Amino acid sequence: xNELIRQIRDTARRLLEERQVELVLGFEAGPLPxxxxxxxxxxxxxxxxxxxxxxxGLNLAVFLDGPARRIAILAKGCDSRAIVNLLxxxxxxxxxxxxxxxxxxxxxxxxxxxxxxxxxxxxxxRFEGERLVVRSGARTLELPVAEVLRxxxxxxxxxxxVFYDILLDGATARIPAAGSEAASPADRxxxxxxxxxxxxxCIRCYACRNVCPLCxxxxxxxxxxxxxxxxxxxxxxxxxxxxxMRALHLAGxxxxxxxxxxxxxxxxxxxxxxxxxxxEVRERFGYESGRALDEKPPLAGYGxxxxxxxxxxx
Length: 314
Prior knowledge:
Blueprint: H1 2-17, E1 23-28, E2 37-41, E3 71-75, H2 77-88, E4 97-101, H3 110-117, E5 124-128, E6 131-136, E7 139-144, H4 151-154, E8 166-167, H5 188-201, H6 207-211, H7 236-249, H8 259-263, H9 271-285
Parallel strand pairs: 1-3, 3-4, 4-8
Antiparallel strand pairs: 1-2, 5-6, 6-7
Helix pairs in contact: 5-7
């Protein structure tokens, strides 16, 4: 990992010194263990703050909201897919972005670490090869990294960036588990019970929306007052409407980065719902979100062979 960090810093420094970009967007060490934070390096000296490890889980594409200046961004596989989608939706000009691809080994799910430790706060965490060493007071716990990865990372089919200007050498990507996918119960009643249970946790803080690079509307439907689609209070019915609307808006767009699940303070996990939408789009239209820039999104095109069973299949 030290070699990868060196490459990241050297690349950022070169881009800034040669004035190819005005800013490099990456990660720096955060104030808490396993909480690396976004870093906005604007000078060659600032490039020395950049770091990289398995605590860089935020999808940095969330900051690419119509950049008017030329910037470079460190992109994992899911970040690059989000960038592809944003380019398709014309959120910024391609010439304003330099994509530095970083093949991803998977990101840590901090909640899994907290559950194994039995505490939400710990003093220190460090990676030693494929093991994570966590210290809390006088207690030290060693965990296999594979056991505390995000579910999205364990099942990621594209850990290496699919779209980039520079792909860093020497970086390795995690090989995804074969055939694994977030499952939902087959029975309709069981599916509804699961969804009700998840929606009941929601406090409608909108952290999931705010960290999602594809939720960029200037005014979210949840905030509209005329018409009022969703009530302001976190009632069960309004929570369900919000989560369902978000799932529908992300159909064919979600890149399964897991940032929304990680950001939720109360542990709402509707990833299985997004994965179901992903599967429907893939099976019906042969489309995978963010795979290629020249592929037209399924809801933006029309074909005479498009499936029509939704008209009669109730």
